[in-house]
Amino acid sequence: MLVARLNAGVDTDFFARAAMSNVASYHFLEVVQTRGRLVLPDFGYVDFGHSNYRELFGGGGSVIYPGKYLTWIQEAYFVRAVGPAAKGAAYIQPWSFVGYSIPHTKLVGQTVYFIYLPLNTAARIQQVLDRAKLEYEFNRFKLGAGYAGYKFDGSPWQNKPFLTCTVKTGRAGSFEFWAQRLPGNSWQAQVRYGIAFK
Description:
This protein is mainly beta. It is 0% helix and 69% strand. The chain has a single domain, classed as Beta Barrel (Porin), CATH 2.40.160.40. A 12-stranded antiparallel beta barrel has the order 1-2-3-4-5-6-7-8-9-10-11-12.
């Protein structure tokens, strides 16, 4: 949605996610506006299934390269953790999005990577590969697979491969369903929703 409309008007995108499993869950909300190649403002909220730790973020950036087969968006956020377990942790978070398609096929994909850079002693460096996925595009839906990962400070890298199905409803937005394998051979179900307004 965000990458498809690079005009001079103001476009607003809303994203929501929910994940459920026996070991990890989270809730995510984001609102982002684009004005041509400028991405600003972009703000949101995420929790991890617990009321004692939440993150609020805000920032902006730019569409660096709006190509036909490759689009690169680069943003930066200020992230503030809140709740008793957060201890006031604060971060700068560079965020990168690359959207791609393979010419003369119906294969499309996305890669999103970001890093938490600590601003105080309560914060710890973290790396997140939110998704690197490739999908086959049918008329009203997409099927695909991908890989995600996470690394906290000095801990080992966590592998999180997934299968995905996206249902495109037109004016009502898109629903993306994930079945994701987590470390320890557990599984997580995710629903990701996005809708665009002009």
